[in-house]
Specification:
The protein contains 8 helices and 4 strands, in the order αααβαβααββαα. With 221 residues, the chain is an alpha/beta fold. A 4-stranded parallel sheet has the order 1-2-3-4, with helices on both faces. The longest helix is centred in the first third of the chain and has 19 residues. 43% of the residues are buried.
């Protein structure tokens, strides 16, 4: 939570939103390394707790990288679609990556895991069994809206446009940061700290219905 949301969380709070976050997928003391499906199982009760605490019927989900993709499993396979108004993915691994995903520093490889030392890393490789299952039902499910925010300088989830989702304009908006601000050089890891991303996320959250307006222009910093 501290790594990804140290700047975006207070930005959204100052805009009047109640912001909740969770750490998920812990193995060997490292978060976001467990099988993605298991992490989605942890998201389900967390969403229920937020809805109970706030009285909201639905939540908006904002996630980075794996966290921008993992909720799609929750919505598509765990009945979560009815609880979600919009999913905003920041550099999400929606179709896996042709690059290399490694666990965070300090992770201890488990001999039972495939890939590069963590199950989530293997799950997020393009063409993995998990990715095939996730996308077999389509990129979207009925109900929620989807906004994807990507950077051409992404060195982790590549190609960067593999992050985009297919769907009707009333439900899906795919945004490339450099189409809005050509000089923005943010890469994958720090995109949640990008002031341009902050503005796009706030804009998407402010929509009464549907995803972000593809014509929205943030202030380039």
């Amino acid at each position: 939570m501290a790594k990804n949301w140290s700047t975006l969380s207070p930005y959204l709070k100052s805009a009047g939103y109640c912001v909740f976050a969770l750490n998920y997928g812990e193995t060997n003391g490292v978060f976001a390394t467990a099988p993605v499906a298991d992490s989605a199982q942890q998201l389900a009760p967390f969403v229920d707790k937020v809805r109970s605490a706030t009285g909201a019927k639905k939540v908006d989900l904002v996630g980075h990288s794996q966290g921008g993709m993992m909720p799609r499993y929750y919505m598509g396979f765990l009945g979560g679609a009815k609880n979600v108004n919009q999913l905003i993915g920041i550099a999400p691994s929606n179709h896996g990556t042709e690059g290399v995903i490694v666990p965070q520093p300090g992770a201890v490889p488990d001999p039972d895991y495939t890939g590069l030392g963590c199950a989530a890393c293997a799950d997020q490789q393009a063409g993995s069994a998990f990715m095939q299952k996730l996308n077999a039902i389509g990129d979207t499910v009925a109900g929620p809206s989807y906004t994807v925010i990507s950077t051409v300088y992404d060195e982790v989830v590549i190609p960067y446009n593999s992050q985009f989702l297919n769907g009707p304009a009333r439900q899906v908006t795919n945004i490339t940061i450099q189409d809005k601000c050509p000089a923005d050089a943010f890469e994958h890891d720090q995109t949640p700290n990008d002031p341009v991303v902050h503005q796009i996320v706030a804009h998407a959250l402010g929509k009464v219905s549907g995803p972000a307006d593809p014509a929205y222009q943030p202030k380039c910093i």
